[in-house]
């Protein structure tokens, strides 16, 4: 049994690491045009199968019914819709997301909450070190960008999707350290700094959301909250008195991007609006039944007659409705409701609860629902909370 646990912890550490190294494929580091390649974490995940086989006679943990309903529902809906619309391999990504969910659920059934968090934190610290170290190799690109900022700096990322997604993921990983006080604030400052260098608005917003949930979390003491309020008030007062916001926004491109939000110079939102204007027509043409997994952009491009560089709608809820219809979206929202309910019931003392809540909010502007790392977190969180409820029931 001990050797099984050691193997599982070794597997889990490497699997979580490879999930963060998203641009590492079985052939090496990928370029921006090689999104379809098999990632290293896909191949490595197969080592989980022996863990299941070793325990199959003793019984396997059963996942919540609403998670089953969601994945079975979107799979059946897609298979039916693929009769009328093109098959899209994104359905395989959804199935892998469920597999990843079960890995997390299984791991949390073998380890207690503190063990799980320690393993996650070890990997997350390593990832932070990689990203900070990587910045030093891109100093020339950063300097060039600072001199003539436009969009985002040309920096190689370990996460798929570019610098915006990299800022997003490190912001979410920051939440893993809400119980570490000093380390949390160091990592939060690091995340904010990286987001500013990347000119990533979503990175800044996610970091602030994590900080906000940390503030109201049961993991934050009353004295810590008082200190935060006092420092925030002092910083805001000094900022108002001493800083010329207009001049600062001209010098700091990341701040200027916030000021340009939704305007004619905001290329990011302009691209989204260009797609979304055809959303209603595409949805109506599908009779609210959807187009199948991964066919959201196919629907928009078919209606508009345009080709878009994006591979998703940059709004997960809109994407799910367009791809799986009303039934698929409702099945997902049931899962969101149940997870959010458990998150607030935990009083946000579980770092994974904060990650998931921030993800649900950030899904309004990005993500496509197949994010394996998020489904891993969901599996871990639901099993940890289930274990806690069982323990309380046994005590009573």
Automatic annotation (TrEMBL):
UniProt GO molecular function: ligase activity
Chief localisation class: membrane
Keywords, in A-Z order: Ligase, Membrane, Transmembrane, Transmembrane helix
Signal peptide bounds: none
Ranges for domain O-antigen ligase-related: 192-333
Coiled-coil ranges from the UniProt annotation: none
InterPro entries in alphabetical order: O-antigen_ligase-rel_domated, WaaL-like
Bilayer topology: Multi-pass membrane protein
Top-level taxon: Bacteria
Transmembrane region(s): 39-56, 68-85, 91-108, 120-139, 183-216, 228-245, 316-340, 352-378
Compartment(s): Membrane
Full protein name: O-antigen ligase family protein
Source organism of the structure: Pontibacter ruber
């Amino acid at each position: 049994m001990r050797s099984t646990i050691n193997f599982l912890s070794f597997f889990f550490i490497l699997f979580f690491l490879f999930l963060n190294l998203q641009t590492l494929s079985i052939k090496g580091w990928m370029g921006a045009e090689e999104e379809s390649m098999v990632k290293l974490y896909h191949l490595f995940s197969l080592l989980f199968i022996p863990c299941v086989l070793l325990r199959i006679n003793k019984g396997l943990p059963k996942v919540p019914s609403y998670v089953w309903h969601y994945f079975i529902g979107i799979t059946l809906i897609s298979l039916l819709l693929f009769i009328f619309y093109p098959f899209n391999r994104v359905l395989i990504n959804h199935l892998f997301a469920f597999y990843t969910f079960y890995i997390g659920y299984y791991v949390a059934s073998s380890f207690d909450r503190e063990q799980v968090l320690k393993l996650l934190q070890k990997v997350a610290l390593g990832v932070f070190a990689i990203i900070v170290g990587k910045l030093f190799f891109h100093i020339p690109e950063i300097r060039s960008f600072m001199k003539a900022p436009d969009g985002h700096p040309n920096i190689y990322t370990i996460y798929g999707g570019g610098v915006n997604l990299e800022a997003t993921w490190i912001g979410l990983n920051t939440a893993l350290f809400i119980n570490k006080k000093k380390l949390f604030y160091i990592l939060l400052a690091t995340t904010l700094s990286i987001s500013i260098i990347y000119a990533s608005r979503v990175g800044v917003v996610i970091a602030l959301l994590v900080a906000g949930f940390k503030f109201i979390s049961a993991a934050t003491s009353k004295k810590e909250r008082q200190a935060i309020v006092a420092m925030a008030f002092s910083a805001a007062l000094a900022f108002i008195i001493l800083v010329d916001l207009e001049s600062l926004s001209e010098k700091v491109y990341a701040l200027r991007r916030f000021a340009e939000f939704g305007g004619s110079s905001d290329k990011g939102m302009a691209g989204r609006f260009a797609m979304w204007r055809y959303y209603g027509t595409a949805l109506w043409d599908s009779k609210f039944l959807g187009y199948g997994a991964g066919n959201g952009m196919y629907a928009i491009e078919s209606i508009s007659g345009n080709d878009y560089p994006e591979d998703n709608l940059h709004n997960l809820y809109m994407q799910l409705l367009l791809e799986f219809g009303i039934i698929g979206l409702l099945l997902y929202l049931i899962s969101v409701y149940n997870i959010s309910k458990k998150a607030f019931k935990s009083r946000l003392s579980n770092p994974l609860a904060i990650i998931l809540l921030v993800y649900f909010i950030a899904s309004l502007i990005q993500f496509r629902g197949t994010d394996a790392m998020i489904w891993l977190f969901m599996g871990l969180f639901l099993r940890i909370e289930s274990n806690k409820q069982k323990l309380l029931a046994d005590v009573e």
